[in-house]
Amino acid sequence: MNLFNMPNLTTDSKIIKDMDNVNKTLSAANDAKEKRNTLQDDANKQTIENTKLLQEIADNTSYLKDLVKISRETQLNTEELTYISRAIFDVAKANSKEEADSLYKKALEKLTSSGEDIGNISNWVTLLSGIYNIVTTID
After folding, report:
1. What pLDDT score was predicted for residue 93?
2. Considering only 6-15, 38-47, 79-88, 98-107, which range has the smallest mean pLDDT?
3. Contact, 110 vs 84, CB < 8 A?
């Protein structure tokens, strides 16, 4: 205030300007925080989706280890191995769940009558089940 008890407009307008700048800065900081939170939420959602996808891939390919074991340990000759493999991979050609069910049963019958030892039959069944599960979830 000056001598005549009048407000000093220069000082008041500087304070108002400074307050306006502070408000703009706070608003920009708040906008940046909201944007960061949105980006973090999006990144978290993407991470969850990627984790699910990786789990699906792992589930769908877990039988490959069994295929390698079968190849190393099989008691079957080439003709029998081809016969069993064909029965299993026929399941992959199924166009419907009903067809897959039928081919799955036939492949199981061929496996159990193959003369293969129980450990390898278990590995064959794991392979067959993996293919069956993929085929029946595609439709």
Report:
1. 92
2. 6-15
3. yes
